[in-house]
Design goal:
single chain; three-stranded parallel sheet; alpha/beta
């Protein structure tokens, strides 16, 4: 963690997305999470510790619209397969129209 934090200080123009993380990583990176593996929008407790915290969240190809909506409103970066017109694309398009 110390090396990654040091890198974040040296290169603030780079978004670091560590796959393995704990709460402290939200202070200097955007941890990776996957809704398919149980992750959800950045927790309220994390947002209290780090008000600008967000994560890079992979969203499912189907279902989970409420969770995707919550993550979007929370400021999380949504990762989805944009190279084809799948269900996740439709959900995100609806969010962006609002």
């Amino acid at each position: 963690m110390v090396r990654l934090r040091r890198l974040a200080r040296l290169r603030p123009d780079v978004l670091l997305i560590p796959e393995h993380h704990d709460a402290l990583y939200y202070g200097f990176s955007a941890p990776y999470g996957s809704m398919q593996k149980g992750a959800s929008a950045t927790a309220r407790a994390i947002r209290i510790l780090y008000p600008n915290a967000f994560q890079a969240l992979a969203v499912p190809d189907s279902g989970g619209e409420a969770g995707i909506r919550a993550a979007y409103r929370n400021g999380d970066v949504l990762l989805f397969p944009a190279w084809f017109d799948g269900p996740a694309v439709k959900i995100i398009e609806r969010l962006l129209r609002r």
